[in-house]
Amino acid sequence: MKTFKIYENPAGNRKAVKRGWSWPGFFFGPIWAFIKKMWGLGTVLLIAVIILAIFPAGSEIGLLAALVNFGIYIACGINGNGWCEKNLISRGYEYCATVSAANPEGAMAVFLKGPSDSEVNQNGKE
């Protein structure tokens, strides 16, 4: 089971954000950021990746550029879900609950079942 935080905006839209490592962030970096509507982060990541790709692969600076690029993707994996949470909050979403489920859809189903389920923490604290 994975742990998800549920966020809701005033219009009633809900999002489930997994806690921990972000595989999509790690593998897709800038594209993932744009899909998650993190425009500034996506732009910075895209520019960084393009600049780092300019250096020739066989040179010492090319190796350094590849290591920095890999570090960027590691940072996206480590921080990605936290960045998603901050982005949702900045877009008017509020924290509702923390739930355990196998996937985001399951997390939403557990949340919608209500507070009687022992897997839901709806008091705003973890």
From TrEMBL:
Residues spanning the membrane: 38-55, 61-81
Highest taxon in the source lineage: Bacteria
Record Pfam families: DUF2628 (PF10947)
Keyword set, alphabetical order: Membrane, Transmembrane, Transmembrane helix
Protein name: DUF2628 domain-containing protein
